[in-house]
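Budget justification note: compute hours in this period were largely spent on complex prediction jobs such as the one shown. Inputs:
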Amino acid sequence: MHRKYSLSHLQELEAESIHIIREVAAEFENPVMLYSIGKDSSVMVRLAQKAFAPGKIPFPLMHIDSKWKFREMILFRDQFCRTHEIDLIIHYNEDGYKEGVSPFTHGSKVHTDVMKTQALLQGLDKYGFDAAFGGARRDEEKSRAKERIFSFRDSFHQWDPKNQRPELWSVYNTRVKKGESIRVFPISNWTELDVWQYLRLEKIPIVPLYYAAEREVVDRDGNLILVDDDRMPLNAGEKVQKKMVRFRTLGCYPLTGAIESEADTIEKIVEEMMVVTKSERTTRVIDFDQEGSMEQKKREGYF
Amino acid sequence: MDIKDFLDQDEQKDLLRFLTAGSVDDGKSTLIGRLLYDSKLIYEDQLAALARDSKRVGSVGGEIDYALLLDGLKAEREQGITIDVAYRYFSTSKRKFIIADTPGHEQYTRNMVTGASTANLAVILADARTGIITQTRRHSFLISLLGIKHIILAVNKMDLVDYDQQVFDDICQEYGEFVTRLKIPDLHFIPLSALKGDNVVEKSAKMPWYTGQPLLEILESIYITSDRNFIDFRFPVQYVQRPDADFRGFSGQVAAGVVRAGDEIMVLPSLKKSRVKNITTFDGNLDCAFPPESVTLTLEDEIDISRGDMLVHPNNLPRTDQTFEAMLVWMDEKPMDISTAFFLKHTTQTTRARIDKVRYQTDVNTLRKIDTEELALNEIARVTITASRPLFFDPYMKNRNTGSFILIDPVTNFTSAVGMIIDRISSDDLKKPVTTELESVPEKTEKMRSSSLVSLAEWEQLLGQKGEIIEIKDGTLEEKRKKAQIMQRELFEQGKISIIIDDITPGEELVALLNRHGIIVILLRVP
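Corresponding output:
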């Protein structure tokens, strides 16, 4: 069969991502892929499977468990990794967990710092990873639009946005000294819509929370928060309501708002996205803490 | 059309990467903002935040200041300039676009070069009131240097010159004369007003004399597939897959040309030949592969191939040389130091390299050649480079992937410079070879031997040791390695300098050379 010598945008993005993933496997001693269980991670893992087929992914996945993820995410994670024989490391901040750090008692800022950022840094240090893949995309947020695909971190895991290494063509500078590392974002150039189209095209399984269903939620400061377990305290005047909702992004359940939606298939989700008027991260409570807050978190080591 | 059909069709759109050049004053941010806005890529919450920020810190008197939307980093918002490259994404029903939004000021030349490295097309903005200025020339030069084949000169702010055709024609003529000095195969001119939306998405009624397409239409329809090189097959081996004893595949991204199952191929540098058995992917075998596909090739014969090797067709070889000339852009705050032994990364191989000579520097504003021996941040020069082992390359203008490289500072690990290979060098320019990597030395040994003014006795006196060759013979490779490491440690404790030679079959010459310099050589012969 004759193929025409051009690729669709998804095929071109896929080829670029596979190249990036292989480059890391070839040049680093001890890479890890951070796995957040979300849709972007699902795409990234599929790309890694493609990069090393017919072999297996030659590095582990690591999930940073904040202990406040949706229950369905954890179920999905365990089943997915079992089915695909994926080498998964689960890490959480033991001290933070013992001290009972939670978004309800300590606020989103402290919770995110202790149970996500600190936990991530602990995990990276514990295993001595010199490269860590993340599923961040440049279209998500302003400061991410400028981050390199191979993003250098000093030995304190800090990002210096003013002193980034130049990155040209697809020739990536992977050199680091002991203790330093590189965060690698293989789907930097994908948009939210690309991710959904790819999920559909490749029939990649995702956590069911992305699809609309009737769920028990509480309206809190304009965010629809899912009552995922009995750790969720109800404030005075708050009522649990049943609503048709779905999630555009997944994180810690107390910090992730649902949107009202009837979209229970990928096609309906994409259709909804094409007319959507709010950006993805509006459902993330943590982005609104302070001005330039994502840039600040990234400097401190957050993805 | 239902959503499934729509998606099936939408998923087939191709991708255009373009660069916007010009300063905030030229209305670049306004133009990008308008493209995003008109293709509905700015969300309500972003627009609301933008309106809020525009009132607070905006520079256009309360109107929507698109620059605030685009300039992501805090420092930029404070200083009101675009410092770094930012990537923007939008799509229309015809195409998906990635915009590299780059700063205009001269001190950000490196950022512009970065943005241009992956772009197929450049939109250069000129202000209708000022016409072609130094900056326009500089941007055009950089764009041609980076091998972009399509330029759109957008003459902006036509509303401020009463949409006057004469103004536009004069600017086009002046620019046309200027670019004949550069290599730009495809050039377009558009009069527009980004602020008012004239000729951005829709054809403007204000300029009936303009018979061409509006900007977005050109972006949607310009043909870019033929910009890729489908002739000269180049496959830099990126990763060797060996999941089990039966499968041995060579993974990589096709850098140029087309490869088919059954093709005869040659491996560089070993010059061994074989045939492509299968082109494998996760989704099954392909009968051919072309750029920029990432695939895995299996071969009919078992030959030794590793990362950094290149597979090519035997009747179409790249140049193979240790010394070559290149246009170099200095990217580092730290100026060039000619004595540095850089790491050079080219396709999938990294080697040591040295800058032998700066032939001349090009003034980015006037394109004049300047005699110099030094290079600092943002400066561009034609240089001669010698690598410690041969590279397989093509001229950059023929092949971006095999003609580009980066130089990495061995101390800071910063990407100090980026280069585009221009041509082969004449032999009279050859300086002495770089000797930091061992494998390069054998073929040049004769030269080294005759040129050394230090005798063995002097070396031995300096180092306080006698040169020796110790060969470890017994045991498996793993055991031999262990022994060698222990031996080296012990020698080190005694203050002796030694070198372990592992994994390569060392030339007798090399071993003898090291020995003549008073070095203790611990040898592991790979069976």
